Amino acid sequence: MTAPAPNSAQSTIDQAEVDRFSAMAAEWWSPTGKFRPLHKFNPVRLAYIKEKICARFDRDIKAHNALEGLRVLDIGCGGGLLCEPLARMGATIIGADASEVNIEVAKIHAEQSGLEIDYRATTAEDLAAAGENFDVVLNMEVVEHVSDVNLFMSECCRMVRPNGLMFVATINRTMKAQALAIFMAENVLRWLPKGTHSYDKLVKPSELEDPINRAGMQVVDKTGVFYNPLLDRWNYSRDMDVNYMILAERG
């Protein structure tokens, strides 16, 4: 099943990428399946997201409903791995993905989990054109799969409210990333299906900061993340040569 064609003249959709992830959609919620790396990555990115949101909006990080009253967009939400835990924290979540198959999987799992999440098969540009806006935009592990990074980032920034935040997580375009995130992860360790990532589509931090700055936002935090095989978990790192996260704010 293909994603719906966006209404705007320009599109950030790479249909081959949408089709690739749609074909794996049934495995989104299997911690040992093709999305195992995201399941392993979830704790560290959720901790980062919650910490920064609570600091920005003066919330009690220990409260079970710490994000109550905040409107959050997860663009490129896939099967909802981030949406569900954030909904449990009290946030009003909109999960958007270009793949109708991913959205149907996400809807079914949310219903089974007793969670109310607004899932939509749509694009960043169509949401922005409709005037949608959010306290927080999550742009996690998606920029390396779009057809036009500058347009995608611009449309995401348009939807961030004053005083709002945008999180971006992706893979750096370095030889180190090519060796570890592509060759090792896809060909040796078999964590990901071959072809999940293309070196040419990986994104340097400066290529995200430029459209963020042009949109009137500013980067306020950056961190690398790395996998520790001895502990079998992801940790923060000063090294941004492979996986990294960026936090931007609108003043």
What does this structure look like?
By secondary structure, the protein is an alpha/beta fold. The chain has eight helices and eight strands, in the order ααβαβαβαβαβααβββ. The protein has helices at residues 15-23, 36-56, 83-88, 100-112, 124-129, 149-158, 175-188, 205-214; strands at 71-75, 92-97, 118-121, 134-140, 160-171, 218-228, 233-237, 243-249. Strands 3-2-1-4-5-8-6-7 form an eight-stranded mixed beta sheet.
Counted beta strands: 8
Structural class: alpha/beta
Mean pLDDT: 91
The largest sheet has its strands arranged as 3-2-1-4-5-8-6-7
Largest sheet: 8 strands, mixed
How much helical structure, as a percent, in the residues? 25-40%
Outline: globular
Layout of strands and helices, then pairs:
Elements: H1 15-23, H2 36-56, E1 71-75, H3 83-88, E2 92-97, H4 100-112, E3 118-121, H5 124-129, E4 134-140, H6 149-158, E5 160-171, H7 175-188, H8 205-214, E6 218-228, E7 233-237, E8 243-249
Parallel strand pairs: 1-2, 1-4, 2-3, 4-5
Antiparallel strand pairs: 5-8, 6-7, 6-8
Helix pairs in contact: 6-8
Question: What keyword list fits this structure?
Answer:
single chain; 251 residues; alpha/beta; 8-stranded mixed sheet; 23% strand; disordered N terminus
